[in-house]
Amino acid sequence: MTDTTTAAMPRQSLGVIGLLAESIGLIFRHFFNYLLALMIPAGLFVGLMAATFGAVGNAISALNTPAAVDAGVFGVIVGVAVAGMVLFAVVYALIVAVTVKIKRGERVAIIASMPRAMGAVLRLSLVGLCFIPIYVLLIATVAGVGSVAGNAAGAIAVLAAVVFGLWVSARLGLILPTVVAERIGISALGRSWHLTGGYVWPIIGGYLLLSFLSIATQVILSLLLSIPLIFVGDAQSLGVFSIAGWLLSVIPSLILTLLPLVFLTLVYLRLREIKEGTGAEDIARIFE
C-alpha cells in the first residue's frame, strides 16, 4: 500500500551548489587529514611497487632468458594495474571515512580506518569489473554510430553519447560511496539507482560545475605561472621558475583530486538523509 503522506511531501532540494561549497570548505579546513588519506596509501603503494620491481628484476637477471623477460614485463604490468586499483579503493574508502567523521565532529583516525578501507577493495573491484565494461561498450556503440553517419547525424549521435554518459554517470555515480558505506557489492548499482532517482539533473549540474572549476583553476594557474617566464632570460632562472611553478601547482592539484571524491560522498549522505532519514551518525559506525 502506498504511503500517501510520504507521496504528498514536496521533493526536497539536493542543494548541489551548497554541497560543492561545503566540499571545498571541508578540504581547506581539514586539508591535513585529507592529505594523509592520500599519502599513506600512496606511500605503501610506492613501497610495494619498489619491492615488486626489485624482485622481478632479480628474477629476470637470474634466469636471463627471453621468456623470463616477457613474463616479468607482463607480471609488472598486471601488478601495477592491480595495485593501482587497490590504491584507489583504499584512498576513496578513507576519504569517505574522513568526511563522515568530520561531519559528526569526531576525531579523524586514518590508521584506525585502514582495515575497513582495505575491506572495501574486493567489493569495489568486483563492481568496477562488472560496471565499467558495460558503460564503455554502450558509449562506444553510440559514438560509433556517430562516426559512420553524416555530419549532422554524427554530431547528434556524439551529443547523444555525451548526454547518455552524463545520465548514466549520475544514476550510478554513488556506487563508490555506497559500496564503502553500506559494505555491499553488486547491489550497490541498484542502491545508487534508487538514491539518485529524481535528482539526476542536479547531479549532472554538479558534475559540470566540477569540470568548470577544474578547467578554470588549471587555466588560471597556467597563466600565473607563465607570466614570470616571459621575463626570464637564462636557462638557470628558467629551471628555477619551472620548479617553483610545479611546487605551487601541487596543492591545487591535490584539491582538484579530492574535490569530486568529497562531493560525491556529501551527495550520498544528503540523498540518504532525504530519502531514508539516515545521517552521518549512522554511517560513521561502519568505521568504528
Q: How does this model look, in words?
A:
This protein has 288 residues and is an all-alpha fold. Helix content is 85%, strand content 0%. The protein contains 12 helices and no strands. The longest helix is centred in the last third of the chain and has 42 residues, at 235-276. It is globular. The protein starts with a helix and ends in a 5-residue tail after the last helix.
Note the beta-strand portion: under 5%
CA gyration radius, whole angstroms: 23 Å
Distance between the termini: 37 Å
Number of helices: 12
- Percent range of helical residues: over 70%
The biggest beta sheet is recorded as: none
Shape: globular
Q: List low-pLDDT spans.
A: 1-9
Number of distinct beta strands: 0
Helix- and strand-based class?
Answer: mainly alpha
Mean pLDDT: 76
Run of helices and strands: HHHHHHHHHHHH
Structural features:
globular; 288 residues; 85% helix; mainly alpha; disordered N terminus; 12 helices
Write the layout of secondary structure elements.
Blueprint: H1 4-8, H2 16-29, H3 31-63, H4 66-104, H5 110-119, H6 121-148, H7 151-171, H8 175-182, H9 188-196, H10 200-230, H11 235-276, H12 280-283
Helix pairs in contact: 2-11, 3-4, 4-5, 4-6, 4-8, 4-11, 6-7, 7-10, 8-9, 10-11
